[in-house]
Amino acid sequence: MKKLVAEFIGTLWLVLGGCGSAVLAAAYPELGIGFVGVAIAFGLTVLTMVYAIGHISGCHLNPAVSFGLWAGGRFDGKELIPYIIAQVLGGIAGAGILYMIASGKPGFELGGFAANGFGEHSPGGYGMLSALVCEMVMTFMFLLIILGATHSKAPAGFAGIAIGLGLTLIHLISIPVTNTSVNPARSSSQALFVGDWAMDQLWLFWLAPIVGAILAGLAYKFMSPEKE
């Protein structure tokens, strides 16, 4: 239960910090943080949580990460479903807090609410295939970074920095394509509030990250010269 509470709080922080920066600060007149600021914000949420709860739950904050670690032999399969439930609920809670804050401004309109999308709902107008490839490859690379940085042979104490910067880089590349998911819990939380098109397109933001993560887990398990 302690692990699940940690995953709930960590995913809440990821959604509130990352999506919150996109909704509240990205387009703020003249002083907005833009794509770069949002990318840094997502990286910082993970970096801070790695050191806050990594020793409690492993700091997955993401169903795709849980699947990837399982495929790489680092996570017990019987914990997958409880972790995913905690992550999704944490993401929804984070989105709920964000909605309460954002809706307090006069003239508030929900808009895209930092939801992920493709086609006309992609920031750059990228199609479904582009979104599918992007999300799969970005999640694949994210899991390689996680698996490598947390390996017993990696320098101790620096995993959070590598993982946080890795997620920042992923967002710098892919925000224009899909608003960047690489995380089904993050996608689900925003889609639930937007509804309509966001729920219709949500399948891609579960399928692509999980497939990419599992492939990365298998690949790293094959490449790693020594077992944990």
Determine the fraction of residues in helical runs and give it as a percent range: 55-70%
Uncertain segments are none
CATH architecture assignment: Up-down Bundle
Q: What is the CATH class? A: Mainly Alpha
- Give the SSE order as H and E letters: HHHHHHHHH
Walk me through what this model shows.
- The protein has 228 residues and is mainly alpha-helical.
- It has a single domain (2-223), classed as Glycerol uptake facilitator protein (Up-down Bundle).
- 69% of the residues lie in helices and 0% in strands.
- The protein contains nine helices and no strands.
- The longest helix has 24 residues, at 2-25.
- It is globular, with a radius of gyration of 17 Å.
- The mean pLDDT is 95.
